[in-house]
Amino acid sequence: MLKKLTLVASLAFVAACSTVPITGRRQLSLVSDTEINTLAAQQYREVIAKGPLSTNSQDVALVRRVGQRIQGAVETYFRQQNASDQLAGYQWEFNVIQDKQENAWCMPGGKVAVYTGILPITQDENGLAVVMAHEIAHAVAKHGSERMSQGLVQQLGGQALSAALSTNAPATQQLALQAFGVGSQIGLLKYGRNQESEADHLGLIFMALAGYNPDGAITFWQRMDARENAASPPEFLSTHPSNGTRIADIQRELPEARKYYTAR
Prior knowledge:
Layout: H1 2-15, E1 17-19, E2 26-28, H2 33-50, H3 57-80, E3 93-97, E4 104-107, E5 111-115, H4 119-122, H5 125-140, H6 143-156, H7 161-180, H8 193-209, H9 216-230, H10 243-258
Parallel strand pairs: 3-5
Antiparallel strand pairs: 1-2, 4-5
Helix pairs in contact: 2-7, 3-5, 3-8, 5-8, 6-7, 8-10, 9-10
């Protein structure tokens, strides 16, 4: 009987798995794309409403220009792989929040926010592309859904999202914000190193497809490394692998990314 139950549980786990594009890693997926995108859109509206949004037209134009180019690259990649259905329900948005946080994030469904505090570190358009491609890669790789699935198992006993929302909506919404990595005060469910490395890998390819030089990722992370050594780590780095490890991994992955790069 125990073996039978174990087999059933194993089959259920396999059925609840999805595959990350490009890397092929299998991940836990207990939340549908429709559910996670709807919840993300709701949480995004609440965050953006609190703002304050930047009134610097140059910063806003820069973020939206970079974001839209990376959006186009992502859509092109999935179209070429005959996998555009994986982006079904995406309604891209790119906003700039006036805040000293050195941070950026992308919720499921393409909901992006960049904090003005990180712009002095990105320095230029290519540096910003490194950050935004990385964050968009988290969404495309469905890391938010994966973390939410893990949270449902750990905190709510594997309860379905719809049931969790109906019985304990505030806790579930808080779980969503944690899973999406939004805000410095929220971080119980941190991106694991595998997810961070995966976002770096996918991000290099997406920024290259968008016409940004992926070699710029090295100089960006070197700047971040210097900043981390000089002061407390920026929020953007709080859950990330060591910069030395990250730079070494990126150097190893650059030859693949360069194949997708054509300067614009």
